[in-house]
Amino acid sequence: MSGPGTAAGAGGPRGGAAAEWGAFEDNMQGGGSAVIDMENMDDTSGSSFEDMGEMHQRMKEEEEVDAEAAAADEEDGEFLGMKGFKGQLGRQVADQMWQAGKRQASKAFNLYANIDILRPYFDVEPIQVRNRLLESMIPIKMINFPQKIAGELYGPLMLVFTLVAILLHGMKTSDTIIREGTLMGTAIGTCFGYWLGVSSFIYFLAYLCNAQITMVQMLSLLGYGLFGHCITLFVTYNIHFHSLFYIFWLGIGGLSTLRMVAVLVSRTVGHTQRLILCGALAALHMLFLLYLHFAYHKVVEGILDTLEGPNIPPFQRVARDIPAVSSAVLNTTAKTAALAL
Q1: Which of 59, 100, 229, 302 has a CA between 20 and 30 Å from the CA of residue 250?
Q2: pLDDT tens across 259-276, in order?
């Protein structure tokens, strides 16, 4: 018969076990619950996996569309055949023509830009050219500071062409025999060769002597210095007196040379440098005037003889006089002819 003791004895182990589990539950509740409440979870917690699936499906569909488009292009190309090749070739030719036209347009623009660079050197008023021509015959006295040089080329270029015309005029008025034209190329080569060649040589010497002058200024200075040469040659080609030439050579040519020498002296430091630079310029300038007056025509004749042979006059038929026949001979001939008949 079970009594309270038996119930107590039976409930003893159960009570101990309950006490142990109660302590475990207390520990779990104190440290945090390890049970997942599925009812309280958000239904969108798996949306990331669903999005990935949709993206994969979309990419797969795009790849299929691209593959179908490529296959359609291949079929079109195979269907078109030579027509498609010609169309591609035409596009390439059109592109090349466009590029060629673009390059030519750019070259034309660059050429115009390069020509536009020279515009400031020829932008000058006629009254300024006249004043500079007169100043080229007046030597300066102030050489303690650098003298101003006109940085333009219009006046010098016109003087060079004027000198060419005077040389051609002198060849026609002298005893020089001209064949096959006047050889204008020789005159142009001589004048432009002197202007450009001597300017470059003097500029090189000025660079060595540490003179303060540029190439454009040197061209302008020497070009305006030819004004004296033009006056001297124009007068002496029409008035053939050697004494008159020497007067103009020393007077007019000397004044223009002194003007250039004074400008170079004002822009050069050192006596030795001045002597070398100015001596070379004066000698070349004065000797060139002598050459144009005395030796230029002979040089042209030598060139003509070399190119065309010596000046031999053409062969001409000359009518000869019939000698007078005596009347006796004529009478004898007439009698002989009558007897024969």
Answers
A1: 302
A2: 999 999 999 988 999 999
